[in-house]
Amino acid sequence: MANQKRALRRSRSDRVVAGVCGGLAEFFGINAFWFRLAFLIALIPGGIPGLLPYILLWLIIPKEK
Description:
Layout: H1 20-28, H2 32-43, H3 48-60
């Protein structure tokens, strides 16, 4: 199982908005809460620093099949 390739995909099961945080969590093997918290903290100083990377990842990362 160590040789199993993981692909970065937006999650269909662990999603709140677009599945970006769930997909990142599955890829890195950590809880999606930490990615959601990071994006939330990045939103505090005015929105754009947290919103822009999320939207870019939403557009770049493909959906799970």
